[in-house]
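Handout, section B. The chain below has 177 residues.
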Amino acid sequence: MWAIGQDVTNVKPGDEVIVHSGWWRPDDPWVRSGKDPMLAESTRIWGYQTNYGSYCQFARAQAHQCVPKPARLTWEQAGCFLLCGSTAYRMLMGWPPHVVEPGDVVLVWGAAGGLGSMGLEITKALGGRPVAVVSDEAKKKFCLEHGAVGAINRNDFTHWGKMPDTTDAKAYGEWAK
C-alpha cells in the first residue's frame, strides 16, 4: 500500500495488500441496507467495468477492496482467491431465485481449476452437493478429495451433439446408452 485516503482505516501505507475486483457505489441503497454488496445493482468488476484497474504500477481502489495479503501465501496464490472466489460466488448466488440452497446438486464444470475449485468450496459452504465435471482422472481424484460428491470425466461422455428425435426409438436408444 503506497497511500490511503483520509477515511481509510483497514490498511495503512506499507501494508502488503491484495485487491478484490468487486466495486460498488458506497451510497448504493442495497449495500447501505446491509445486504450482500456482490449482488447490488451498482456492482462492477474493477478494471473491467470501471475506468481504472490493476495492470499498472499504481492503482486506485476502494478501501473495502484492499485486504491484507496472508503472509503464508505467495502473491500468485493470494491474488487468485479474490477474483475466482467472487466470480464463483456471484454465479452461484447472484441470480435469485436461482441460487444454491442446502441439498441442491450443483454441476461444476472445470472443477479442478481456480474458478471451479472455488465453486466446489462455495457450494459446500452453502450446503449444496457439488458434482465435478473434469477432463481427466487426476482432476477427478483431486475434486473428490476436495469435497465433490461425484465427478464426471467429460472425455468418457458420449452424448455430444444434437439429440436425436425422441420419436425415433432406435436412434434415441443408441444415443442414450
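Note. The first helix runs from residue 29 to 32. Compare this with the example in section A.
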